[in-house]
Write a structure and sequence with these properties.
The protein has 205 residues and is α+β, with helices and mostly antiparallel strands. 16% of the residues lie in helices and 40% in strands. Strands 1, 2, 3, 6, 7, 8, 9, 10, 11, 12 and 13 form an eleven-stranded mixed sheet that branches. Strands 4-5 form a two-stranded antiparallel ribbon.
Length: 205
């Protein structure tokens, strides 16, 4: 379950879109370890790519959907649940969002907490799950699949691949080269399997 990520700033997200017109151009530089002070958590305003006509635009959306009076309670979307609601024509939380609100979140990395490994919290001194940072080796940034409604979005998750499975039982739906148009198009359901995506994990000290 993704509860923390390293998003691009709005300016850098726009620069990446602008750089598409210049083949081989790099709009942002590579950063080995993103600044944790810039990390996003549920409730954060995050730059997200949303369809606008035949192109994409940058929108700042809040991470998390409201539930039971909590404004950012639901911040991950299981793709299996969303596809099942869509297939059955149900009016569940995800049916409309995955049918009409698919979008993209540009990030440098995301975190997952280890299922069993514990470390001492610097803030409280209590044992907490050790966090692992995941990124695409050598990538300046990459895209996570997401869904939105209004001014809110949720990260789409799927079963973990070999890179993430030793750490956690879910992972964000990481998009590879050329897959952003697939996620935004009619064949998006075909992207649920992420076995081929090779991610680098770095334990947080």
């Amino acid at each position: 379950m993704c509860v923390r990520m390293c998003p691009l700033t709005a300016d850098k997200a726009q620069a990446v879109l602008d750089a598409r017109a210049t083949p081989g151009a790099h709009a942002i530089r590579y950063i080995e370890r993103p600044d944790p002070l810039r990390d996003a958590r549920p409730g954060s305003l995050v730059p997200v790519y949303v369809p606008e006509g035949d192109d994409l635009a940058v929108a700042r959306l809040a991470w998390g959907f409201p539930l039971d009076g909590k404004p950012n309670a639901v911040f991950n979307t299981r793709i299996e649940s969303a596809l099942e609601q869509l297939r059955l024509g149900r009016h569940g939380m995800w049916a409309k969002a995955i049918a009409q609100g698919r979008c993209l979140v540009p990030v440098r990395a995301f975190y997952e907490g280890h299922m069993t490994e514990k470390v001492e919290s610097e803030r409280t001194g209590r044992p907490v799950r050790r966090q692992y940072l995941f990124r695409l080796p050598g990538a300046r940034a990459f895209l996570l699949a997401a869904v939105r409604e209004g001014d809110r979005f949720s990260i789409v998750t799927t079963r973990p691949n070999a890179s993430v499975a030793p750490i956690h039982d879910r992972m964000p739906l990481v998009l590879g080269p050329g897959e952003s148009s697939v996620w935004l198009g009619p064949g998006f359901a075909n992207l649920a399997d992420r076995k081929y995506v090779q991610l680098q994990s770095i334990p947080e000290s």
